[in-house]
């Protein structure tokens, strides 16, 4: 027979909720590891008192009772596994695995039996239901009634909150059955009652989660946080782990208490209690117990009088009362020598601590991720800058955590740490030449990232050298050709589309200009419309109708507030992802409703666009008519100027040289003053070239006369 038996997907009933995990039976005892919290229950073989096999809702279940009264329930077994378990119990634990089914008669009267921490309601010899007394939060009595109230289960949609038992009166003198029932319940129930004095009190401690200053009173079975607004009572049985983490500034310390179930304030759940201490704060502590009681209870872990740093005293007392180890950072050291990494999670900046068996992020919101629940990690390029990267962690349950804005200098240390812990790195295949279906993070590793930057720098240097060489060569040749060469170089630098290409084309133009200077006038003429190009560019008309939105965008605008209320504190990117998932999962009928709204919006847009286009055409026609009218007026003004020039010539015929200069000056003055467009300037210059010779000939003839 095998020395061990292992079962996967086994469910343990804890405080009314079913937590899945793995169960292992060995010669030494029974071990169950919770997949959700990582908590391990270890039952020694010598402690087992009874084993019961019975049919339950999830197939078949195993109930184990220990000698000190604890009860453990595990469900999810198959019927065929009974023989294997029964033989294993006989061979290694010397126990008979009994088959005992629950009574399903439906009767509501019977006998109550208290066994250890379990209340069993029996009909005859068969149990109907069992209540773990650790689930009881309050017990009250009436005339012939006992009322049990239970802790609320946050993981269940529906929770049992109250059960009432009717206890008939008996003829026995001196014994009240109702009070006896209540005392049996209260002796084992998880009822927090601050009876007696606290062992010690820590005053005005700074608490980050929940935020505020709290007095912490230490009682034998629970922790009492007393603040100005709220009070919290935390049983030591709900404490999962303790962490003592140094701040990056080396002047402060975080003390983190992990809780399951969490403490509640309204709809807010606090899974972690985070205290912040200064290393310089010292305290002298005296326990409210005599030395014999301290020695007997804590076995040397605490003394009656202690002194030291405040964070050391708090952590020492908590470790002794909770009886759990304190987790501290391991041998990881970041780029700056600190044992943590500065990063951002969701919208807040915080510190990520790589531990020996997991990661913990403080402080808002606190996150603890164990190595055994990590599916893979991923090093991704930062979305906003190349000087940082993102560290992504995905768990086996599919939950993804992204720690962003990590400095590039931390990459090597973090990669070596992850590699040493043998975690699966998602994009390691890129370094080993493995093919991937997508190239999203091709440059996410530090070596490739640097190579990419160096390559871009080299290309930039080459472009600068080419641009300098070409600009030097073109400068020598363009000195001789003043207007065309300078204008071409300025245009190339202004647009800067390809500096080397524009400069080389400038060289070719300057060579052609030296050989054929007659083409320079063409370059000057072609330059005029180029100046008008920015004016002719049409910007977007603010009065134009806006394009209609798609069905998805209409739905997103209508549902954005609801998604935010359902997921408080969700970031913009997570909101977009969640909206995409909801839209994808939406039924076809609901999508058709939004498709119809989008179609209506599209029709309204087309109608508005038609009206807008008709109005814009009318405006353009009016503009053309005004331009034509303006040109006509300019021509009329120019005609009057010509007549004035002719009269001035006839009046000044006695002095030929003076008349020639006056007529030329007046005509140039009139044309430059009255004309406004480039076309009128051209016409004036052409008319001047054609009209200037005749007056000179007439003047010479009149002079001879």
Automatic annotation (TrEMBL):
Subcellular locations according to the entry: Nucleus, Nucleolus; Nucleus; Chromosome
Main location: nucleus
UniProt cross-references to SMART domains, sorted A to Z: HMG, Rtt106
Positions with biased composition (Basic residues): 517-531, 624-633
Record GO terms (molecular function): DNA binding; histone binding; nucleosome binding
Annotated GO CC locations: FACT complex; nucleolus
Biological process (GO), any one: DNA repair
Gene3D superfamilies reported for this sequence: 2.30.29.150, High mobility group box domain, Pleckstrin-homology domain (PH domain)/Phosphotyrosine-binding domain (PTB), Structure-specific recognition protein (SSRP1)
Ranges of the DNA-binding region feature: 545-613
Domain HMG box: 545-613
Region listing for Disordered, in residue ranges: 459-551, 609-705
Pfam (any one): Rttp106-like_middle
Acidic residues composition-biased segments: 474-496
Residues annotated as signal peptide: none
UniProt similarity note: Belongs to the SSRP1 family.
PANTHER family for the chain: FACT COMPLEX SUBUNIT SSRP1
Protein purpose: Component of the FACT complex, a general chromatin factor that acts to reorganize nucleosomes. The FACT complex is involved in multiple processes that require DNA as a template such as mRNA elongation, DNA replication and DNA repair. During transcription elongation the FACT complex acts as a histone chaperone that both destabilizes and restores nucleosomal structure.
Listed name of the protein: FACT complex subunit SSRP1
Gene: Ssrp1
């Amino acid at each position: 027979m095998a020395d061990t038996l292992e079962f996967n997907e086994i469910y343990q009933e804890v405080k009314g909720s079913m937590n899945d995990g793995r169960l292992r039976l060995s010669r030494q005892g029974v071990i169950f590891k919770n997949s959700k919290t990582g908590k391990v229950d270890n039952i020694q073989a010598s402690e087992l008192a009874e084993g019961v096999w019975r049919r339950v809702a999830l197939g078949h279940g195993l109930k184990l009772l220990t000698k000190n009264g604890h009860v453990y329930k595990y469900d999810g077994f198959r019927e065929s596994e009974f023989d294997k378990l029964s033989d294993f119990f006989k061979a290694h634990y010397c126990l008979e695995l009994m088959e005992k089914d629950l009574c399903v008669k439906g009767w509501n009267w019977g006998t109550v039996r208290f066994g250890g921490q379990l209340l069993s309601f029996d009909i005859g010899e068969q149990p109907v239901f069992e209540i773990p007394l650790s689930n009881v939060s309050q017990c009250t009595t009436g005339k012939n009634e006992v009322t049990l109230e239970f802790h609320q289960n946050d993981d269940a949609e529906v929770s049992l909150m109250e059960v009432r038992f009717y206890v008939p009166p008996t003829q026995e003198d001196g014994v009240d059955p109702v009070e006896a029932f209540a005392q049996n319940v209260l002796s084992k129930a998880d009822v927090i009652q601050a009876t007696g004095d606290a062992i010690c009190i820590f005053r005005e401690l700074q608490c980050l989660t929940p935020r505020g200053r709290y007095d912490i009173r230490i009682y034998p079975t629970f922790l009492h946080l007393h603040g100005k607004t709220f009070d919290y009572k935390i049983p030591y049985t709900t404490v999962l782990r303790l962490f003592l983490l140094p701040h990056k500034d080396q002047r402060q310390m975080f003390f983190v208490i992990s809780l399951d179930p969490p403490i509640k304030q309204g709809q807010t759940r606090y899974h972690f209690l985070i205290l912040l201490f200064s290393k310089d704060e010292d305290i002298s502590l005296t326990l409210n117990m005599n030395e014999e009681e301290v020695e007997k209870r804590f076995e040397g872990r605490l003394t009656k009088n202690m002194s030291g740093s405040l964070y050391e005293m708090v952590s020492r007392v908590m470790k002794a009362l909770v009886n759990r180890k304190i987790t501290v950072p391991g041998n990881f050291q970041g780029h700056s020598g600190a044992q943590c990494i500065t990063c951002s999670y969701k919208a807040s900046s915080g510190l990520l601590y790589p531990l020996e068996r997991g990661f913990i992020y403080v402080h808002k919101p606190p996150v603890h991720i164990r190595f055994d629940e990590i599916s893979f990690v991923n090093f991704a390029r930062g979305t906003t800058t190349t000087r940082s990267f993102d560290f992504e962690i995905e768990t086996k349950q599919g939950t993804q955590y992204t720690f962003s804005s990590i400095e590039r200098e931390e990459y090597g240390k973090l990669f070596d740490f992850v590699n040493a812990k043998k975690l699966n790195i998602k994009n390691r295949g890129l370094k080993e030449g493995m093919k991937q279906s997508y190239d999203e993070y091709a440059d996410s590793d530090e070596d490739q990232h640097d190579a990419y930057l160096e390559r871009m720098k080299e290309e930039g240097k080459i472009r600068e050298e080419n641009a300098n060489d070409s600009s030097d060569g073109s400068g020598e040749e363009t000195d001789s050709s003043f207007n065309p060469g300078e204008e071409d170089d300025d245009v190339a630098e202004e647009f800067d589309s390809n500096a080397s290409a524009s400069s080389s084309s400038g060289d070719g133009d300057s060579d052609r200009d030296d050989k054929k200077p007659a083409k320079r006038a063409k370059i000057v003429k072609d330059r005029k419309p180029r100046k008008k190009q920015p004016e002719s560019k049409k910007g977007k008309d603010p009065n134009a109708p806006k394009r209609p939105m798609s069905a998805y965008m209409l739905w997103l605008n209508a549902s954005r507030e609801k998604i935010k209320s359902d997921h408080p504190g969700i970031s913009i990117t997570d909101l977009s992802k969640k909206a995409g998932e909801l839209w994808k999962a939406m039924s076809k009928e609901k999508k058709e409703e939004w498709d119809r709204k989008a179609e209506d919006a599209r029709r309204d847009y087309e109608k508005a666009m038609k009206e807008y286009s008709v109005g814009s055409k009318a405006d353009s026609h009016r503009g053309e008519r005004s331009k034509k009218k303006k040109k006509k007026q300019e021509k009329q003004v120019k005609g009057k100027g010509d007549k004035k020039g002719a009269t001035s010539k006839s009046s000044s015929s006695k002095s030929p040289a003076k008349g020639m200069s006056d007529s030329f000056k007046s005509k140039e003055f009139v044309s430059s003053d009255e004309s406004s467009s480039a076309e009128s300037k051209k016409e004036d210059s052409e008319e001047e070239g054609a009209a200037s010779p005749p007056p000179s000939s007439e003047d010479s003839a009149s002079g001879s006369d």
